[in-house]
Design brief:
It contains 16 helices and 3 strands. By secondary structure, the protein is mainly alpha-helical. Among the domains are: about 1-50; about 260-355, Type II secretion system (T2SS), domain F (Receptor-associated Protein, Up-down Bundle), CATH 1.20.81. A hairpin with a 5-residue loop joins strand 1 (about 1-10) and strand 2 (about 15-20).
């Protein structure tokens, strides 16, 4: 995300200066136009500081604190601008203070809070903006802000559980690879001097393979690193293309265990996002479109848009979901109950809670199962390398006895 400084005129013709964050100059222009500001000049800010970017981002817990405090103040009867000014004086976070400053400028220029939030797409996504807009239209902004804080917190907990599930195996895998490389690069070359003392005795095949790999790593380590980087960069570029992204996202859903887990996480995102939007008064068609854009998997993004297309043609939501193979039958059944009782948002909320619990149980089971598997894997790889290294010594010992 880049930062642009701008000069623009409002509907009264006054010249206004400020800054906006956007992915490109065109996006920055679109954001200003949405705020009823007509750009005169937009320039990208030149950053000369050497600060660490991730230390300047707004964390989810900061967002939750901001929305909850703002909801409390508005509920107490404070005007929006006064609530934001109070929050500005209370917070110690420079990122939050900078965000509030921009919001105050936008609101004092005559824009609604929902429009002001569009300047911070990395913090407030389309779901948040739509919910705030609905809250402003219905006069229930404080309730929507509180609900948004709760849902953001729950979504953060689910995301943290997902990360937790994969941190341990990733760490063990890195340790295993590091140990194996250290043995190949430093231990095996020293053992080769011992192997030479065996004369013309042929070394076992596993040992010969390891020696070849060791020599390649030591002699051509720069080339090996460059090849690995090139392969990684090529794959990264490929998965960003439409074809590559589709294949990668399809592959993830077919992975044993992982595919089922990802489906549960997607169902939690779908249910929670739809529940938040519908309960805020967003129409079903708009809610489905926004939800599809929040999905991290293009397969489910397209599936939700197919559901939207069927609903647009006159079919009910539960029937449209049922015709899509990617959604468990329980989703369509629960939505069907919601349609009959007029409580789709509550049914979706219950589904989100159910899948959050399922994710929690899966993570616990996965971690208890993964630990012995990773120990065996680590022992197998490291043990295999050690055995291959000492195998020639054992063979010589047996030959001498004979």
């Amino acid at each position: 995300m880049k930062e642009y400084s701008y000069k623009a005129r409002n509907v009264q013709g006054d010249l206004i200066q400020g800054k906006v964050e956007a992915e490109s100059k065109q996006v920055a222009s679109n954001l200003l136009t949405a705020k009823k500001l007509f750009p005169v000049d937009i320039k990208e800010e030149a950053h000369t500081s050497f600060g660490i970017p991730f230390l300047k981002t707004i964390r989810t817990k900061d967002k939750v604190f901001f929305t909850r405090q703002l909801a409390t103040m508005i509920n107490a009867g404070l005007p929006l601008t006064q609530s934001l000014q109070t929050l500005y004086s209370q917070t110690q976070s420079k990122s939050i203070r900078k965000m509030i400053e921009q919001m105050l400028r936008d609101i004092e220029s005559g824009n609604a809070l929902s429009v002001a939030l569009t300047s911070f797409p990395d913090v407030f996504n389309r779901t948040d903006v739509s919910m705030i807009a609905s809250g402003e239209a219905s006069g229930k902004l404080d309730e929507v802000l509180e609900y948004m804080a709760v849902q953001s917190e729950k979504g953060y907990k689910v995301a943290r559980k997902i990360r937790t599930a994969f941190i341990y195996p990733a760490f063990i895998l890195v340790v295993v690879i590091a140990v194996a490389l250290l043995m190949l690069v430093f231990v095996l070359p020293q053992m080769q001097e011992l192997y030479k003392s065996f004369g013309n005795a042929q070394l076992p095949l596993p040992t010969r393979i390891l020696i070849s790999v060791s020599e390649i790593l030591r002699k051509y380590y720069l080339l090996v690193i460059l090849i690995i980087i090139a392969i990684g960069a090529s794959l990264r570029i490929y998965v960003r293309t439409d074809t590559g992204k589709y294949l990668w996202h399809s592959l993830k859903l077919r992975l044993p265990l992982i595919g089922n887990f990802l489906q549960m996480s997607y169902m939690a995102i779908f249910s929670r996002t739809m529940s938040s939007l519908v309960s805020s008064g967003v129409p079903i068609l708009d809610a489905l479109k926004i939800t599809s854009e929040t999905m991290p998997n293009i397969i489910y993004e397209k599936a939700i848009m197919e559901v939207r297309s069927k609903v647009k043609q006159g079919k009910n939501l539960s029937g449209s979901i049922k015709e899509t193979d990617l959604f468990p039958i329980m989703i369509s059944q629960m939505v069907g109950v919601g349609e009959n009782t007029g409580e789709i948002d509550n049914m979706l909320k219950n589904l989100a809670e159910y899948y959050s619990d399922e994710i929690d149980n899966w993570v616990k089971s996965f971690q208890s199962l993964l630990e012995p598997i990773m120990i065996v894997l680590m022992g197998g790889i490291v043990g295999g390398v050690i055995i291959s290294i000492i195998m020639p010594i054992y063979n010589v010992g047996v030959f001498v006895k004979r």
